Amino acid sequence: MSPVLPSSLSPHICIIASEDLKQLLESASLPPLPAILQSFSPLPQVTTRTTSLTSVPHASFALRFSDLVEIENACQEDEEQRAVRTLDWIGERIGRRCAKWVEDIGDKDTTRTPWWDELKRCIEGSHTPSRTETWNHPVAVIMGVSTNAPNPLQAITALHARPLNLPSWIDPNILKVTLIVHPQNSALSDEEAGALFNAVKKQFGLNSYLLPLTCPDIPPPPVPVPALVPRLPAVGESDSPPETSLNTLRMAEADIQGTARFTREFLLMSLIPWMETCVVQWNENFSSTRRLPSRLFSSTRRLFGSPSPSPAPNHSPHSSVSRANTFAGSMSVTGPPPQPQQRRLAEFSTILGDFKLAVNVWETIRKEGHGGSDILPLLLSPSPALQLHVSNALVSIQPTATEPSVSAQLRALLYAVRWEIGIGLPDFISDTLEGERWLVWAAGNSEEAPSALLLAQAALLSANKGAARRAAFWYVSAANRLEKCGIKPLTMYFLRKARTLFKTRPMKELSPSFWDSEGKSASSTAGLNDILSVIEHPLGRLLYTTGDVEGAVKFFLGLLRGSASPTSSPSDDEEFNQTSSDKAYLDDFRVALAHYTTTSPNRVLLKDLKLPFSFCVPQQCRTRLARGNAQGNKSEWEKREEDWGRFWKQNGGSEGIAKGGCAAVDETFWIDVSLRNPLDTEVNLSHFTVIVEEANSQPSTSKHAIEVETIADIVLGARESRIVSVGIKASRPALLIITDATFTFLSLLPSTESLASRGRRLQDTAAQRQNATYAPDVQIKVQVTEASHKLLVNFVDDGRLVLGQGETKALSLWFSNSGTSSVDEAWLVSGMEDQIWIGGVENDGSEAHSMLEVINSENTTRPGRPQRMPLTTSLQPEDSTEMTILLHGEQVGQHELHLLVVYREAGSKQFHSVQLLRDYEVQPMFRLSVSSKPSRVEDDLYLIDLRVENISNGDILLKNISTVSPTWRCRPLSENPLGMSRPSQSSRFFMGASRWENSQDPSLTMDFVTRKLAGVLQGHPVDPSQPPPVDLCCTHMPHKSDVLKPHVRDFIHSSRQIATTRTISQTYPQLPSQSYPFVFPLYHPLSLDVIVFWELPSQNRKGHVLLSASNIGAGHAALRNIIDAAENAKVARSMYAETQREKMEVLQAVKGSAWNAEKDPVVLSVASERSLIHDFSNGTCRLPISFSVRNHSLTHTSGFVFKLSLAPNTDPSSPGVTYGGRLTFRGTLKPTEQSTISPRVWISRAGSYEVGSWQLEVNVHEPSDETRIRHRYVQECRKEDVIRISVRDDERES
């Protein structure tokens, strides 16, 4: 059985009725003849035949009837203008009726919607012919007259003689049918009417029918009939109001049966046979044009000698269809059909159910580019290829990327409706076709109401398939377009549907542990907030404009979700969009809420409204006491307390620090509430305060004992974070709990936010580990006690503190005892990298002016210890005093100075503490670099090159330079380059380094390090023994510096300790920092520190910068033995790969450390003159060449073998010298010993000569046994080692 096609693909029948017939129907209370006949369509159980005479049964066969005059007038209208009127007409019809539809549907889930049905009826009701397709072209014209006419035959003749006023592009193949209506009250008798009918058949053909009707004077009761499809009103006419009752006909039963009989006979006896005949004849012509050309057969006959083919049979139009003899009155259809008739062939075969022929013809039309892709999806079986046909059909309507025309939009709408009707719903929404996407493609970018309904239908189909997110997106798109058309009820309905679908979470087959590991909630909708905002914002505005202010306020408040991450930095475009969105949401919320508060007397809604975001950040809220409790980093204060406890325990004390953070009675303390505006727009919070309760007391009693400050108004900018301090004062001792913060949002909405932070995650039991369980919330508590121990410490000058690089700054501290007990003992605890000296700049009484001094050092990397404050007398209650500390800023950058003051009363068993925080900045002033190389001067072993570049913006006075080393003593080699250094000026200072005669044996320190690192490599615990002390040689250039002052010595020691500790932590990250003082000394025996002292006389500022140079001197792999032992030791297998890997890392770090450095200690240099004069008349020149060989090792003896060779001459202008005598020299050098080798050369004539081509072999002996060789080195003469000697003839000179 043939599938049912959309009614818009059914035959279109035009009717023209005479005036007498019109008057007859009007008098009988009947509608026009087209409406009467349309009531009997579709006809059931109709059979058609294909070109192969195969019967095709149709369950129903639809016909479309129209008034010929209306069709003729409609064809005169411009198609583009008619398309505009059609879309506007559909939008008006839907806009008038949608409110009632939405009210009837409510929240019910339906598979059909009335607006989609109405859209389909409007589209299917369009019968006006079009240039682009011939479905609406008339197939037949019924000419109706009645026997009430004065001369019925003349009226019929006039109708047949009337030309069809149709455009030329309409197919002229039209079947003409004559209908004679014979009413019961006609002037002609039945015999006369029969005679008239016979005469008409003889004159106009057999396609004539006689329809007798009773037409009683009293109309019979109405009979329900199918509703007529709506038609586009003619130009200048208004649309009929929506039907409020059923469509009925007032016809007698006999008349109904007679009309139905006529309609069926017309279809079966006239229309279908005529269409079948057209299909047969047009198919013959169509097939003939697709045959192979005769030239091919002629070539075949000529080449192969085959006989000529018989001529093609001449198909008679009467031989294919037996009922063709009934078409005497039809127009001729013989001859090759024009191109429109080729399309008519495809349409007729489609209507008749001959799909095999139809598909063939449609494919041909499609390949020729004349359409067909829109019909093929209705005829072919479901397959993915249908999507290509759909896409091709839509692209062919509007091939360019510009906005489609109105006629193109109407055609796309027509195609989409046909596809949705003609393809079964299961196949249409299947994954193979995905027909809902076809509707979206057809809607395109059009903003008309019909296109919006296409999106809405696609959303409905997707929702029925389970694709909720896609359906919601299409609902939103449809709502946006309908809102522009002014159809608010449907817009609100679609937005609500989209909101419901987006909030319906899909099933996620994820492990519950996934959400726990990601720190997210399984029900979180954070990723959908932006999408929901697009839905809820227009919905809220529509609610406000329709009078639902409460609903609008709730929606607008829900839109203010804020940002999830305060540290996110969106792009410029995103930031602009978010800013404009938040501002728009906030403005709408403010207007709606203000309107509600002014119009609602009870304001019940305000009690239910709650902000969907928080301004307070409980984790960053802190209490601040008046006695100087600084904020800072909590971990830093914990380190200070640990340092103090460790120090006091090492000194034999057992007293601890009393728990801090207690406020005093009648003393104002502050709760610093951290506020962060999550919105991208400015907001204000009025009447901001906090709720404070006493533990274990009634709120009514604590209300009078606690005073809480209220801030009138706080304005927060977009994404601004701010600390707001609220003062609190208690009049009696108690434990105060700060529970909430209260404020009025936008001065309209009272809000309360909790200041309690979430407790820690519990992991004690299996249930707690499987399901996230947290400890009780952590509340902010403050203990208020009597003020017995209350020491206030503050900086006298709390302005911005900026130091130069290495500057020493004096800071004044003000101590005030506000308690009731005296303060007899106070200590200052600073950080490991803080350089603090208690006291002012004072000399130690020494007046020596020598350039050298000795500093005794413990040689330990132990960090600085707490320092006792010099209280001359006890600090009694209400007493105050001022003390000075010196701060040295060495490291460039921003810093925080965390100082912990620990104090107590004499005899007290507990210490009390007060925290002091100060931010300071150290600005760069110098760029320092130092390098060293072996010296050619006999008195110095090494040459030190110091570079100082002024990178500040002002002049700096370089006062003097000092060096500190356990081994080396330095002296200046150049004139004093010190003085005023201009910006960007670079200065160089050369120094000679020689061994200090009073230096200690470096083996003591090396043995200590060797023993400690051997234990580390073997995995033994580090014993807490200290490295041996060392004396440091401090030399000053050019005169005595401030190094003799105690605070400078302390700062030098702390700078060296900080630098050494950093190097150790970077080299040995596997070792705990507590073991550093027991493994590594502070100074390497070969280390050298350079200190540059500077001043700014105009600003009375001074300071010094310490630069730790690399070790100077030759090392001999002092740790080689313990490294070899560790590498060759039997390794115990471990099940932990990380442990073995850490051991290897420690071994590699020890192998590459400065304590295991290795270097060739012997340096060779040429010490001869470079130019001389000789009288060659007296003979050849015999010249000794002096080579200086020096052992730079401080501990090891080295033997050497010096070999000279005659290398080939590479430079003709500078020939090599000729040696005479010995060419090999051997010797032994003690530590720091120097020897001279003087081979002789023979020069026969004046010129320039090269001295090179030598080799030096060095053997480093063991100190304990000089017969054993520790290291071997070989030095070759390099290109830069070659020197040139110029010899001039004295006789020529004279």
Summarize this, please?
This protein is an alpha+beta fold and 1294 residues long. 33% of the residues lie in helices and 26% in strands.
Low-confidence stretches: 292-338, 564-579
Per DSSP, what share of the residues sits in E-state strands of 2 or more residues?
25-35%
Report the count of strand segments: 52
Oligomer: single chain
Q: Give the biggest beta sheet.
A: 6 strands, mixed
Count the DSSP helices. 33
Structural class: alpha+beta
Q: How far apart lie the N and C ends? A: 134 Å
Based on CA inertia axes, which overall geometry fits? Answer: elongated
- The Cα radius of gyration reads 54 Å
Helix content: 25-40%
What is the average per-residue confidence, as pLDDT, rounded to a whole number? 84
Which properties best describe this structure?
6-stranded mixed β-sheet; 33 helices; alpha+beta; 1294 residues; elongated
Question: If you had to describe this structure to a student in words, what would you say it looks like?
Answer:
The chain has 1294 residues and is an alpha+beta fold. 33% of the residues lie in helices and 26% in strands. It contains 33 helices and 52 strands. Strands 11, 22, 24, 27, 29 and 30 form a 6-stranded mixed beta sheet that branches. Strands 12, 14, 16, 18, 19 and 20 form a 6-stranded mixed beta sheet that branches. Strand 6, helix 7 and strand 7 form a beta-alpha-beta unit. Helix 17 runs antiparallel to helix 18 and helix 22 packs antiparallel against helix 23. The longest helix has 37 residues. The chain is elongated. About 5% of the residues have low confidence.
